[in-house]
Structure formats: structure tokens, C-alpha cells
Design brief:
With 280 residues, the chain is mostly helical. The chain contains twelve helices and no strands. The protein starts with 11 loop residues before the first helix and ends in a 7-residue tail after the last helix.
Amino acid sequence: MLKESEIVVETPKAAEAGDELDRPRQTFYHKHEAVILGGAAILLTMGVWQAFWAAGKISPLFFSGPSAIAKRFWDAFRNGSLASDLEYSGLNFALGFILAALAGVVMGVVVGWYKRVSMLLGPFLNAFYATPRIAMVPLIIIWFGIGMWSKVFIVFISAFFPILVNTIGGVRAIDRDLLRCARAYCASDWQIFTSIAIPGAVPFILTGIRQGVALGLIGVVVGEMFGGSQGIGFMVAYGGQTFATDTLFVGVIIIAFAGILLTALAERLERHFSRWRPER
């Protein structure tokens, strides 16, 4: 029989400490497994690609190799043409995307909130949304010319509709019980907008922004390919027309990295602000 002095009472803190000891500790590999495996796959692919290129198994007329692409990248960076193209494309994308985000969110809230506005604008928005934006590029160049603003407008219409559609969906998905409760307490439209509508629609808006980033990058490249004399899109078009595949790959890789970076940033914002949605 146990004496009173031998009885051990396990406190909650002790129990938690025991659970922590029982859990397997994560090693550096387990914490960064995705990065390590993804990086290893990229390095292996690059190594095999470079080996075939160095052995002369790849025709430079149709493809290129990592060393040739890196050399072309360094040459463009050293002579300043790469910085100029990046600045031009970045400005076109930033202006077009910011305008698209502002217009898409404002119009999406209005169309999603007011039923009669949705009835009036719905047919036009559906028609423009269903129309491939690339089919409008020649008309946009006629309207704005071959300067910067034609590219900005192409980015704008490419990113505008995903943001608009997702914002409308977010406003319409607001819990009706919350709206009835707010109106029962005589809340004004502005109070409902700021405390219920906007916080509830934020996750949807950020989903639209993430989609708009990808389509906006496509828009800036398409605009510069069709009617441009500089920029990353023009670099890709020039490389294809002159069979300079190393130049073409430099532009494609820059666009890919920009897309990965901007999409990752948008996804992080989306996860962060998903907590804004009001609890039911």
C-alpha cells in the first residue's frame, strides 16, 4: 500500500512537459524538407541539362543551355539593358495592377452589394469577362498607341476581372444573419460596410488579387510582345524572332521568378487576412 508521501500528483505543466519529451524532435531536414527536395530536383535537372549542352547534344538553334543563358544574363546585366527592361516592365505591371486592384475592389463591392447595379452592369461584365483579352490587344494599341499606356491598360484588363469577380462573390457570401443583426441594431450602411462586408470579403478579394498577379504578368508580356520596343516581353519576342534562344530563356526565367515571388507574397497575405472573416 502506498504511503501518502509516495503519491505523485501530475500537474498539468508536468503532463505537458512529458508530452513534449514524448514528441519526436524535428530535425533541420524535416523542417525544410520541401525546400531541400525541391532544390535538389532543380540542381539535378540543371546538371543533366548542362551535361547534354556541353556534350553538344542540344542544338542552339532550338534550345539553349544553363551556361549560355547565364552568360547572356550577365552580358545584359553588365551593359545595362536588363535593368532598363526590368524597370520598364515593372512600371507597366505596377501601374496596371494597382489600378486594376482599386477599380476591381470598389466596383466589386458596389455590384455585389446593390442588386439593381448588378442587374444593369451584369450583361456587360459577363461579356467582357468571357472575351479573351488577347483578342483586344490590337484594338488597345490603336486606342493608346505603342507607348507605355497601352501596356498598362492590357495589364489592367487582365488583372481587373479576377479581382472584380472574386470581390462580388465575397460580398454576396456574407452571412445574412449578421446583416439582419446589424440592421436590427440600426447600423448605418457605412458601419455595415466597414465591420461586416469588407472584413468578410477580404479573403475573396485576396484570392482575386493572387489570380490577378498571374494574369497581369501575362498581360505585360503580351503587350510588350505585340507593340513594344523594350521590356521583358520584347526581349522574349526578339529572342524568338532572331533564334537567340539564350536571350529568350533569360526573359522566360525572369518572368517565371517574378510570378513565383509575387504569387507567394499574395498567398501569404491571403493566409494572414483570412482571419478577418467574421465568425458566424
